[in-house]
């Protein structure tokens, strides 16, 4: 065998090994994105001050394997019913590749991020005499509401006052920046609630920009709420 043949054979093996490595890496990335964690970009101010516009967050999907979503969690969820306009699909191949490995959120899926205020069986209303949200008769002193807002502030066209029962298997969600967040308060009937099956995962970390690095926990105020009551049929939220 000549030197040229040996060199070509080695190059051929190197290309095959590279392809195998890339396929394995893509398979691992797809598995992590589907079942472990996924990165998301924050496009609006609806969760300020907790999440700011242009933050990048890491969303854990592992917790959904072992338990249900809890009050106080920040969750990313699929659009439960025309909350968002249909997003255009990205034509940028680099963007598409980043979406596939989970570095960038999907441009074809309508995902939102809000805080869970009520879970199935809860009675949620706004507001008590001090302007606080009430869950199961317990007034919340929410430390995460934007300092410029009152807990009961709402955008134009959304409910500033409400008294609802959350159906079993659904969530009532609100943004921390109450005066601008279009959330459960801005929809009627069952469309006001987020099906638990539509939850993608729980936000656990702000990782970009680096000066915003922070873990995202569940405020202790939600741990003091009374136990759930039995579920009821969804009343009109309007």
What can you tell me about this protein's structure?
It is a single chain. The chain is built from three helices and twelve strands. It is an alpha+beta fold. The strands form two sheets. Strands 1, 2, 3, 4, 9, 10, 11 and 12 form an eight-stranded antiparallel sheet that branches. A four-stranded antiparallel sheet has the order 7-6-5-8, with no helix packed on it. The radius of gyration is 22 Å and the shape is elongated. The protein starts with a helix and ends in a 23-residue tail after the last strand. Mean pLDDT is 83; it is low at 230-238.
Q: Keywords for this structure?
A:
eight-stranded antiparallel beta sheet, elongated, 3 helices, alpha+beta, 238 residues, four-stranded antiparallel beta sheet, disordered C terminus
Number of strands: 12
Helix content percent band: 10-25%
Estimate the global geometry from the Cα principal axes: elongated
Q: Kindly state the mean pLDDT as a whole number?
A: 83
How many alpha or pi helices?
A: 3
Order of helices and strands: HEEHEHEEEEEEEEE
% residues in beta strands: 15-25%
Q: Helix- and strand-based class?
A: alpha+beta
Q: Regions with pLDDT < 50 over 5+ consecutive residues?
A: 230-238
Largest sheet: 8 strands, antiparallel
Gap between N and C termini: 82 Å
Radius of gyration: 22 Å
Write the layout of secondary structure elements.
Elements: H1 3-35, E1 37-41, E2 56-60, H2 63-66, E3 74-78, H3 93-101, E4 111-119, E5 123-126, E6 133-135, E7 138-139, E8 162-165, E9 170-174, E10 194-195, E11 199-208, E12 214-215
């Amino acid at each position: 065998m000549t030197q040229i043949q040996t060199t070509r054979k080695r190059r051929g093996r190197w290309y095959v090994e590279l392809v195998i490595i890339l396929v394995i890496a893509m398979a691992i990335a797809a598995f992590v994105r589907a079942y472990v964690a996924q990165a998301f970009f924050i496009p609006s101010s609806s969760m300020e001050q907790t999440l700011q516009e242009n933050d990048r967050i890491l969303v854990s999907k592992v917790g959904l394997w072992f338990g249900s979503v809890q009050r106080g969690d920040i969750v990313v969820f699929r659009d439960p019913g025309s909350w968002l306009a249909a997003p255009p699909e990205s034509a940028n191949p680099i963007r598409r590749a980043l979406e596939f490995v989970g570095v960038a959120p999907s441009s074809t899926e309508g995902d939102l991020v809000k805080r869970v205020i009520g879970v199935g069986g809860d009675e949620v209303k706004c507001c008590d005499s001090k302007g606080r949200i009430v869950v199961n008769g317990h007034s919340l002193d929410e430390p995460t509401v934007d300092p410029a807002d009152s807990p009961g502030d709402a955008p134009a066209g959304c409910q500033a006052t409400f008294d609802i029962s959350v159906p079993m298997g659904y969530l009532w969600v609100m943004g921390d920046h109450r005066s601008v967040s279009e959330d459960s308060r801005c929809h009627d009937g069952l469309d006001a609630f987020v099906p638990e099956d539509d939850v993608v995962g729980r936000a656990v970390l702000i990782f970009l920009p680096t000066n915003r690095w922070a873990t995202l926990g569940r405020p202790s105020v939600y741990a003091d709420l009374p136990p759930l009551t039995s579920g009821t049929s969804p009343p009109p939220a309007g």
